[in-house]
Design brief:
Blueprint: E1 19-28, E2 31-41, E3 45-50, H1 57-65, E4 72-77, E5 80-82, H2 87-92, E6 95-98, H3 110-114, E7 121-122, E8 129-130, H4 132-145, H5 164-175, E9 180-184, H6 192-207, E10 211-215, H7 219-225, E11 228-233, E12 236-242, H8 248-254, H9 262-271
Parallel strand pairs: 3-10, 3-11, 6-9, 9-10
Antiparallel strand pairs: 1-2, 1-4, 4-5, 7-8, 11-12
Length: 278
């Protein structure tokens, strides 16, 4: 029977990956959804995971987020092998997941959604009370860090658009000390403008030193923001490449023709000129 995870207090080498998959296998019955996948995920780097439907991308997200336990191999977090039993355990170890169909509490304010379950207080018992002013200020500041400015934190969360909701999740992860961020299919439901906004949030997470995993079907978007590219096919690693190994056109050819995102490319490159130099 599995035992609860007890963090290893010994220091982890600075060059060690935040998360590492070592020969990781997940089966659905007799069918391998992932087969002996090995990949390191380093701090301050964006790893884009690409593949057709059924390639194993969703299973990989499920394992990293604590929804699904692996059958073979190792999932190593901060130097210690773990077998997550719940998303709460993954979050406790600093792995935050941003889902494609991210839900918010629509009638609650933006700042309440930001702090949901972890509301700040002030004073001492029995006079302790909710620090509303501090929560509002923190929310505005945290959202500005990921590119969302001019925000009214008292607005209901239903006022947030696609892209802004995902940016809220990224800002929350940064504020509460996540060290890895897993992003599931971020661009599918968004306009180019919203993709640009969320792209800023992803880059902000990398700049803050998080290990970022972006799962996407779009090779041009992946090449724009990614440092490494993990290609999956039928649950196995079909390629593990860097930006120096492959250009956007070749990555698109490998993915059988992802849609063009020239407008998004221009917008993000204008905001972050270093993207065109990497």
């Amino acid at each position: 029977m599995s035992t609860a995870y007890v963090p290893d207090e010994s220091p982890v080498p600075a060059h060690a990956p935040v998360i590492e998959l070592r020969g990781l296998t997940v089966r659905h019955g007799n069918v391998p959804a992932l087969s002996r996948v090995t990949v390191p995920l380093h701090a301050g780097a964006i790893t884009c995971v690409l593949g057709e439907n059924g390639s194993g991308k969703s299973t990989l997200v499920s394992v990293l987020s604590g929804l699904r336990r692996h059958d073979e191999g190792e999932l190593v977090v901060a130097g210690t092998p773990v077998r997550f039993r719940s998303p709460r355990q993954a979050r406790a170890l600093g792995i935050a997941t941003v889902w494609q169909d991210l839900a918010v509490a629509p009638l609650l304010s933006i700042w309440r959604n930001f702090f949901l379950g972890a509301e700040p207080t002030r004073g001492v018992w029995p006079l302790r009370r909710l620090d509303v002013a501090g929560a509002r200020e923190t929310t505005v500041r945290a959202m500005a860090r990921v590119g969302v400015t001019g925000l009214d934190p008292d607005q209901p969360a239903s006022a947030l658009q696609a892209g802004e909701r995902q940016s809220l999740a990224v800002a929350r992860a940064l504020h509460f000390g996540a060290r890895a961020l897993v992003i599931d299919e971020p661009v599918t439901p968004m306009t180019v403008a919203r993709q640009t906004l969320f792209g800023q949030a992803i880059l902000a997470a990398r700049a803050q030193g998080l290990a970022v995993v972006v799962v996407t079907n779009n090779p041009r978007y992946a090449h724009l923001i990614g440092d490494r590219f993990l290609l999956l096919a039928h649950g196995s690693v079909a390629g593990n490449l860097t930006r120096d190994d492959i250009d956007a056109d070749d990555l698109t050819a490998l993915m059988a023709g992802g849609e063009q995102l020239s407008t998004l490319t221009d917008a993000l490159t204008a905001l972050h000129p270093e993207l065109g130099e990497r």
